[in-house]
Amino acid sequence: MSSSPDAPALTVDSARPDDFARIGELTHEVYVGGGLASPEYGVQLRDVAGRSGRAELLVVRDDGGRVAGSVALVLSGDFGEITESDDEAAFRMLVVDPAVQGRGIGELLVNACLDRARAAGKRRVVLSTDRRMTAAQRLYERLGFTRLPERDWHPVPGVELLVYALDL
Questions:
Q1: pTM
Q2: Start and end of every N-acetyltransferase domain (predicted)?
């Protein structure tokens, strides 16, 4: 990614089917390869086509057009797993290529989720994150998300996910 003043502004786009392999590879690399998720979860992380039917997949591309970050925005249905009502949205599997982390891509993706949730009439955005994902937690807190410890959950034994929310 270029940092020159003449570089094109980063934008968030809807993922295309030809992005799915890269999104799956990147998500698996960051979560499983980075020690943030178990290898068993890797199958779900790579199943981008499956989640595309339950979530809006958003991407940010690098200067060469390659996916540099992605997130799955859940505006309806149960893929969010932590929404409690129809007026909540959620996002999952936020990922940024380690080579370009720290350049605002994660924040851009989160803000796009917030904008789309507002446009859909949602009153709150919720998310869950593993305790080990401290950089993500700092981002969420900086953007105004607060902890909802009463909604923390365990998808499998030994894994505790922390819940954060932002009222829109």
A1: 0.91
A2: 10-168
